[in-house]
């Protein structure tokens, strides 16, 4: 009886519907991690994630003959970064917390790797489109209930009931910046769904309106910055894709060089830029926090204090950096500053390497490939990198999941190792597939 049951289960896991369901479940589980942690607690959430991971492993085993493992090349830079974060357990000042936090990081990474290996880009977009629609819609409903109908905060989900005053709102994801980031990525996702006719206009238009409205009601300067950068990046990609093929590569490298120059100029003129965007005191608060964090960096500047991901207020030095009153935060609100504290200069270097490689590969693919679906990873990475200036979202949970998927896709499609192992051109999925 045992063998037939196992065989039937594996056959079920081989089906495209099961793979699609696991992809959507994985994306949704990580997207609403905060809500699940608040409702069922960390043990319950981790148990759900572990069960999902076991199902993903079983699915990969069942589909091992279908997946083109020659194409499934994980980025060496990503593995090196994860390896260093894991090694930090050896010198961590809080080894038990590092072990738990790194295990959580590995679980989320595996979900991202499964999605990247098992689904074409258009299928990933469809799954994330469904997840983001649901998250934004439920977030808005809860905000309406809290801020208008009952006029009372929903403290367990950190919803303050301020929708009637025009926001800010935070929905299912704890903070307005995180909700705004999801909404900005949703705009890109919904627009590509519409362009590829994955959904009808009767779904696409309300979805875009929902995402745009969410961005507006977050009232977040950080999300405003991300939105502007996304619009500029989208316009640049649109222009590149309309150029003759022989001129595209030059235009791509020129834009990448311009981006590097812009980053240098932004650093040089950071003082007036800070003054310009500091209307609500957001940057002033962050500057003070960064200075406090950097005071601890020299103690372990090369190797870091140990990986922790989301800060644990009971572990030093985070116990002295997490306020008991005032504005709460569970990170350094800057990815590089956060990493420098946790995994040192080596970790920062490895992280910047994997981010740089993933972004350049994704950007080049977005300009070269015919299908518009290839612009999704590039624009998602633009959003994640931009928000990293003021948040550490890219390091953990949903931001990290998105990053791993984009990195895996970019590495599989455009890897330096492909030059050492030539392989046939991989067919692109049709928009309607």
Automatic annotation (TrEMBL):
UniProt keyword annotations, A-Z: Membrane, Transmembrane, Transmembrane helix
InterPro entries given in the database record: WaaL-like
Top-level division of the source organism's lineage: Bacteria
Ranges annotated as spanning the membrane: 18-36, 42-62, 69-91, 97-118, 130-149, 169-192, 199-217, 223-241, 253-277, 339-360, 372-392
Protein name: O-antigen ligase family protein
Organism of provenance: Pseudolysinimonas yzui
